[in-house]
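Handout, section 3.2

Students often ask what a structure token actually looks like in practice. Rather than define it abstractly, here is a full record for Alpha-glucosidase. The first block is the sequence as you would receive it.
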Amino acid sequence: MSQYSTDPAPNTALATVAPHRDWWRDAVIYQVYPRSFADSNGDGMGDLEGVRSRLPYLRDLGVDAVWLSPFYASPQADAGYDVADYRAVDPMFGTLLDADALIRDARELGLRIIVDLVPNHSSDQHEWFKRALADGPGSPLRERYHFRPGKGEHGELPPNDWESIFGGPAWTRVTEPDGTPGEWYLHLFAPEQPDFNWDHPAVGDEFRSILRFWLDMGVDGFRIDVAHGMVKAEGLPDLGGHDQLKLLGNDVMPFFDQDGVHDIYRQWRTILDEYAGRGEGPDGSSSEGRRGERIFVAEAWTPTVERTANYVRPDELHQAFNFQYLGTYWDAAELRVVIDRTLDAMRPVGAPATWVLSNHDVTRHATRFGNEPGLGTQIRTPGDRELGLRRARAATLLMLALPGSAYLYQGEELGLPDVVDLPDEVRQDPAYFRGEGQDGFRDGCRVPIPWTRGGSSYGFGSGGSWLPQPEVWGELSVEAQLGVPGSTLELYRTALAVRREQPSLGAGDRVEWLDAPEGVLAFRRGEFVCVANTTGEPVTVPSYGRLLVASTEVTVADGATSVPADTTTWWTA
């Protein structure tokens, strides 16, 4: 008996899906990196109209919501995470009318739209910052950022020893209007991204207004960039050493995961709860009176999943990315520990667990899992492509079987590898150009995705692509995989359809672990059973009823199943 996924998934998607309260507890949310998704005007850069044209593909894939990385007006020093105007669309992506049309089309297709919000820092081209520089020392506008006099006899040294996440000092000295060297300003990321001072009331007022602007536009939620930032320890104390990046994720830093961020989110939650649902249901019915339909998702890098749970207490945010899970290698023992810790941490606060394997900041998991363990989430080597894809498919089925919500990153449903051999001259990741910072190779997961076997940029657009695409892209394209039995795209389509159909899948807060051979994870959820073999050898397990999906071909005979190496299977009674 072969796996269910050898047959293409039937097109069971409806034009709309019925709204339901707390939809986010079991949602599958698809991240779109707009500049790399689809280009509608042939300028080599993806845009909102391109995303809009591909919404039916996402509906048919079977996702519930689409998260859009930033498309705001920006100088693009950090691919849009340096925002100059939070209420405007950058011309490279389109206009506010394009954003409105995208949101409306998504609603008609039964898809929700989540937009990125970047509250830790702005662009240095933001009107506030430009005026603060022009006004000089003592300007009230400088109080909305972190301006400080330097240390040393002539103020030539940074105010403290903090280091930028992108490498080098976290401070840049400005030239004052009279031409003299002056104050320093804080930027935890690139110099073009000055940090807001969230102790200043004007900053909070501005972002509450920004939230309302996009909620009135009809968005269904916000992914909060650097949600663990914003609040800095009083006095901006020195850390007392170098190599501070090694401490990230292991310690509470004076500039990250400070308790004061939670007061901000409690205020924001009251705003979100004022908005009733989506304005109207996908079926056209009024949603007046339905609360809790719009959500916040935190990008919060914290030392432990228990501290992550602080962000999703009932009066704060709805979800937080599970970076501990993303950073776990394909190993049964390690995976079981992080699964149990995640569910145990989320249960007391009543929040759903989230599961994610790839995003725009890390090496795609089809490449990570083809390399040796211990290399982290940013890897420069291709590894074993066949092994990586096999493990990636299995890891996806495991993730989609766990209780809670799952996040997919564009192109992973095609089994795309990271592009690890981009020439230095085409790279655009700002971290690449600053020494001693992040790896700087995030461009590899941001290469525009392929839609067709041939043509200009494999169907991405008519005018090439802003990052070069490998020659293998054509055979990994949507056109090459759609309807093809056993393809990675059909595996995703099938798995998402089955996940939606199975009453035991989706929301929940626990699993029942079953006895299994070493290196194998097996758990039950109601009548559903998932078995994941993370070893390099086949294992024999009981047949747990009817086989629903398997990531590779399996053999079922006489009440037992031979599960090949690096394979996950789904069963139902």
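Discussion prompt for tutorial groups: Residues 201-217 form the longest helix (17 residues). How would you have guessed this from the sequence alone?
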